[in-house]
Request: fold
Amino acid sequence: MRRGVLLAGLLSLCAFGLLAPVVEAQSRPGTLVAITNDGPAAGTGTMLSIDRNTGASSVIATLTAPGVSLAFSDDEGKLYGSFPIRDPAPARSQLVTLDPVTGAVTKNIGFIVDAGTGFRRIVAGMGFAADGTLYGVEALTRSLVTIDTATAEATSVGSGLGVVVLNYGGTVADGIFTC
Amino acid sequence: MSLYTVDLSTGAASLVGPTGVSDNGIGLALDGDGGLVAVINDSLYEIDRSSGAATLVGNTGDTALSSLEFVDVLHVCPCGGSWKNHGQYVSCISRAAKLLSPGERGALVSQAAQTSCGR
Reply:
């Protein structure tokens, strides 16, 4: 049993589903990258670099869709993104790879669906573990899932986070799911 | 808002502790030194892994942040990648280094040029 390999930030009664793999401390050349979800009305988002020392942001690119989650694969050197698709309903998540320099979508892998049933999944947060597995927090089932980066198929891990969470009417609101 | 760990085998969450920030949490990432950082609403925070406590770093100037991740430039352009030649490797580093500050960018590209990657 592996414990403490991922960290998830959860609201006091609510959860934000972003995961980060725990690795040994080592200075690496790179930058913090953030994305924004400007909401369904705007239908767009922005990719930003964040200064680690000051918090100041600089725009990298405007995205063609509002972003929800980013995860960088050290093994592949690829930046993965989860984007909410609300039209047509019902809402679902789309897994893509992004160029971290330009923000352009380099590959549309597909909608994230259950590996067994094909049912839609809404992934509010993603992160790679040290073994290269992509994990996500799934808002509909309020559970941890693994995500196949080749097919976008999700497989549940266990029976739930054990934290009561609520997803806003079937949509992911700014990558947050709350309880 | 509180910090939790998630057991990768069972999917169960365990409380670490409160961050001390009452606003909604948005994104969590490890920085280049392995430190845990988060964007919460419009600001960047350092997060203490053992207690969950958040320390303000600064304001990002954007209120719609939805995710945070660290992109390692050397992993975008791995030395052992399938490079046609050394120039292609250095070109990749030069492009990815646009994510860095001007000072860091120049130093990294200079270092890349002196490697044997792609040769």
